[in-house]
């Protein structure tokens, strides 16, 4: 029988469209049946907790990003509480990952004040020719900006500027980062055409999407060939 608990960090995220619940229980049987989860001969402690995350549309670009924010915050919250260890999580009934020493615990990010960050977004918008549609400052534990913009510029030239835009809005110095997560989406009159996301708390990851499979802002395997032909 799973022991369930609502965590304050889920509504604190500011978005219930994707992550709807978190239930704690023992690790699922499959993690004991296969040695690949914890390593050969290794098992989680008897009091280990597993997070069963209830999410809708978690396969979507934004949905998977928000799930990643929550699982990173869960890992740090439980570690800070010095209670039963969180050893992994499932999303929609499927094992999503395990918590180990591969990623730092208890990170603190040097978030700028929201007012200062909004001013920077306005300056970058003027520099690169876009308008802000929405800026949501999600708070899994600290700030995770989700910025949606609109532009009249040519798609290809705008995509080429996305690495610079992200560098200004999600600044990092080597492995040191400003936020625990960041999402950027650009649209034009035809709809969204490029997205970039990063997560830095817990399991570090990043992703990108482009409406043009031959035109990504960062190196991407599918941008090299399309249906077997060079892009």
In short:
The protein has 231 residues and is an alpha+beta fold. It is built from 5 helices and 14 strands.
Largest sheet: 5 strands, mixed
- Helix content class: 25-40%
Strand order of the largest sheet: 1-2-3-4-5
Radius of gyration: 19 Å
Low-confidence segments, given as residue ranges, are: 1-9
Number of domains: 2
| Strand coverage percent | 25-35%
Mean pLDDT: 84
Order of SSEs: EHEHEHEEHEEHEEEEEEE
Q: Distance between termini?
A: 53 Å
Structural class: alpha+beta
**Global geometry:** globular
| Total number of beta strands | 14
Structure description:
By secondary structure, the protein is α+β, with helices and mostly antiparallel strands. It contains five helices and 14 strands. It has helices at 9-12, 30-33, 61-81, 114-128, 155-169, and strands spanning 3-4, 19-25, 49-55, 86-91, 94-98, 131-138, 144-150, 172-173, 176-177, 181-188, 191-199, 205-210, 225-226, 229-230. It has a five-stranded mixed sheet, with helices on one face. A five-stranded mixed sheet has the order 6-7-10-11-12, sandwiched between helices. Strand 10 and strand 11 (191-199) form a beta hairpin. Residues 1-9 have low confidence and may be disordered.
């Amino acid at each position: 029988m799973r022991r369930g608990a609502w965590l304050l960090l889920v509504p604190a995220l500011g978005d219930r469209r994707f992550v709807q619940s978190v239930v704690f229980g023992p690790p699922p049987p499959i993690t004991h049946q296969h040695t690949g989860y914890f390593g050969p001969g290794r098992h989680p402690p008897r009091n280990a907790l597993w997070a069963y995350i209830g999410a809708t549309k978690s396969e979507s670009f934004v949905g998977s990003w928000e799930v990643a924010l929550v699982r990173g915050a869960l890992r740090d919250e439980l570690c800070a509480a010095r209670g039963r260890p969180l050893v992994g999580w499932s999303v929609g009934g499927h094992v999503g990952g395990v918590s180990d020493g591969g990623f730092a615990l208890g990170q603190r990010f040097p978030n700028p004040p929201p007012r200062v960050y909004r001013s920077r977004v306005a300056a970058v918008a003027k520099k690169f020719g876009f308008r802000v549609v929405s800026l949501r400052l999600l708070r899994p534990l600290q700030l995770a900006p989700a910025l949606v913009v609109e532009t009249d510029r040519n798609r290809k030239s705008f995509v080429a500027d996305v690495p610079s835009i992200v560098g200004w809005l999600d600044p990092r110095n080597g492995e040191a980062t400003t936020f625990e997560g960041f999402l950027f989406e650009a649209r034009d009159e035809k709809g969204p055409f490029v997205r970039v996301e990063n997560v830095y708390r817990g399991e570090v990851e990043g992703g990108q999407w482009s409406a043009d499979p031959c035109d990504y802002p960062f190196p991407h395997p599918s941008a090299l060939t399309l249906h077997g032909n060079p892009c």
